[in-house]
Design a protein that fits this description.
heterodimer, A: alpha/beta, TIM Barrel, Methyltransferase, Methionine Synthase (B12-binding Domains), Chain A, domain 1, B: NADH Oxidase, three-stranded antiparallel beta sheet, 10 strands, 38% helix, globular
Chain lengths: 814, 213
Amino acid sequence: MAKNILKAIEERPVFFDGGYGSTFQTLGLKAGELPETWNVLFPEKVKSVHYSYLEAGSDIIETNTFGANPLKFGAEGDMSLESIVGSGIEIVRQAINEFEASDAKYAGKEHFLAVSIGPLGKLLKPLGDLEFEAAVSMFAKIVKAAEKYGPDLYLIETMNDSLESKAAVLAVKENSSLPVFVTNVYDESARLLTGSTPQIMTAMLEGLGVDAFGMNCSLGPAQMKDIVPLFNKYSSSPIVVNPNAGLPRSENGMTVYDVDPVEFADHMESIFEAGAHVLGGCCGTTPAHIREMVSRIENRPQNPIIKKDDTVICSSTKAVTFGKKPVLIGERINPTGKKRFKQALRDGDIDYIIGEGIKQDEAGADVLDVNVGLPEIDEVEMMKTVIYELQTVTDLPLQVDTTDPIAMEAALRMINGKPMINSVNAKEEVMKTVFPLAAKYGGLVVALTIDEDGIPETSEGRIRLVGKLYENAAKYGIDKKNIIIDPLAMAVSSDPLAALATLETVKYVHEQCGGLSSLGISNISFGLPRRELITAGFFTMALQNGLSAAIMNPMVTEMMKAYQVFCTLSGYDDNCQDYIGFAQSLPEEGSGVVAAAPVKGKSGAESADDLFNAIVKGLKSVSEEKTRELLKTTDSLTIINEYLVPALDTVGKGFEAKTLFLPQLLLSADAAGASFAVIKSELEKSGMAQESKGSVIVATVKGDIHDIGKNIVKVLLENYGYTVIDLGRDVPPEKVVEACIKDHIMLVGLSALMTTTVPAMEETIKQLRVSAPWAKVCVGGAVLTQEYADMIGADKYAKDALETVAYAKEVFGK
Amino acid sequence: MKDLRTLHDHMFRTEPGMVPVIRKEIYRYLGYRKVSPEGAVLEMTESALAESIPLITPGAICESFPVKYESTYTDLGFTCTESKNIVQNLNGSEHIILLCATIGAKFDRLLFKYGKTKPVMEAVLQSVGAMLIESFLDDLNETLKKAGNNQGLALRPRFSPGFGDFDLSVQKDIFRALRTDRIGVTLTDSLLMAPTKSVTAIIGLKSIGESDG
């Protein structure tokens, strides 16, 4: 009979082993020597440590493969990754076999072999330079090697980053059917170095189908004790706790830890009592620590593993809970019916798309829906780009909104957190496509009450489909708590009973099923005048009937009014604080748009007599106002030439003379940008387009992750009327060349901050000279000098952003 | 603190609120010389500080090594270098402390966010971050200096890879020797540190009494 670690955990407390480093040191491991090499060099020594943990009472023995990854070990030779991992497994297996044979009383006891997988030692993008899929394939190499040697489970441990944890889990799941455990490194504030909490990791790891998880390393048992309840509150899975023996300190050139076996066991008893199911040790713990712990806990009844009903979705830093206060899902990242958004998709104007996300975040959305489908674009690539960029600028969890299963899977793979999936419906084909993806990657699935026969007109018809959706989800192992029913709002203008059918279904889901529901609210008012009145009224009614979430526009005041009033009257607003803040932020009667939240100390007190001074002083809202006033009497070109450009030039001169400084330069640029935006929208209304002076590519070169300089150049170029194609940071030469050829761009600005990335700049220039010889290249950045620029063959060295603008004038002749 | 000459695997962490905030330094990084910003820039600096400080996770690792001076190169214990500037900086020190410090990855997320949305705030945050990591390091340096002085050791000024002829390629050796991933600091393929507000440095240790100028 195959051994079953998960069954063992249900039945009794289960024990991991402890630390290896300090014992290896006493056996002769030198500083800087990779401990994994001992699997090949000194297998007997490694085995002796495993054996001592078996004697101490450990049920699970970890292989000595923590640092065995493709960045440290190659594919060939005695010290290949496979030989390190394979011998690591064989050594543990031998230790277990010898131990079980050593005494008849051990023969019936189950022992398990866990392959230890540690972090790769590189940060994933955007924080570092490692691609997510590259990380997945590196972890996959470890798993593929291990599978040949028959381990019992995988332990992904000491992970600082939620995204790297996910990469490792996917690698295990895609190459093995064995159980997988994950332990992360929390600090004393109960967060990972990248900011995730136990609640977030629980949502994410359970979504990915991890069998047990918890924490290890960094903290001692005393500190971890306080974090265990945070897992217990949210987790429906076994909790693993492997602390260090206190905090490290050095003594005679050796790292030592303060917590002795008795104190360790005292704390571990408390940790067990707080609800942990699997216990062991990390750095500094020894067989003596484990023995003392095991003897205290082994005969106690295991903690029950309690299923939790909470529905939680998350980004890597923010969790959103459903079923309590209604959740607002921002609908604006969607091309349907939006000319400007469609244009942005066609032009690859990612900044506009991301901007829509940021605006909704600021307006109070809890989740962002992401729909970038347009027949003429590559939806999969666009989806990947937008998800990546959104994840770098917002903490909000995302809702993947697509009918293309390939785009859906691409998004689900790379999302750092647990997303919403929009959507599945009751059609067999769709369920067969979407449910397996949801089961693999995790997520809260929006389930529409629609099947092969269309949308049932009555609530009875929709309720029937609700049952079908829940049943089918269950077949794929998806809990009801991870399904959110969308009973579909239809236009009341075409069917007077449309709203009621929807509301009755919402009520049924809430009251009879104890389930969640979501609606795209605005459909209800289609075809009617002053739509926001009907939409907002319907929104309130749906909330009162138990609606859990709404896909809506958080920038529409009527909707936010309805939402805020509902929350305040439904007990979600202590002391009416949220309502008061909201009421104060409302604009004057009738303007229809929510004012930006009042910013402390905003420059309201400051003023300027005209647009020129407003820009020089960097007053954004005053500049907008003055521009609007001027447009009544003055044509746009005159405003640009007589106010905007001279103001920017004045600020530029002040900057060069060091009477004005960088932030002021940027504030003025911001104000000028706001003024331009007013002019541009006026021109568009009148059917004219503002003529661009020319298009410029800007990029921070490959290998460089600093982009402040490039961002400043971009802002200034835009303000002087140039179109800027921003390729971002860490841009490979090929991408610059491709963009340059695509639109026959005349000017390319390259930035590099570090000496180590100057060669990448040189390579980019070299490739441009071959494939886009017409383009002029302007370089800048902290390490560059005129000499460097000449050496790598640039056309121009610009010492700051203003010099780049001056050069653009030269190149484009205006 | 233990003898600085045999410091091993010394981890140093501090609460975000304990890192001294030196506004003058932020202004200096922003380019202000002799004058201080006012109005909107001042407000932005305060809001950048308020937003960053709860997010930083200051941490450092130190390890000491004996130094050997050979004719053409210097053996720093974890690597060998031909840097002349190092020889000048160490000024005959018998040992060095090798260190890596960071204010953490969460701060970078803030930078990326404002880089996309509000470049002026990104610029202010860059300066706030530079001040915070330097200030944290100065504090750490002060602790080490006190310990050193008690042990009859003087500390030489901090010296980082990339200064003068101390080549950046040494970063790889530093990261291996310190196992910096324990405080979440990693090296990109182009030898940049991630998180960005991180520093590696060596500090020479010299017995007091031997002439040190």
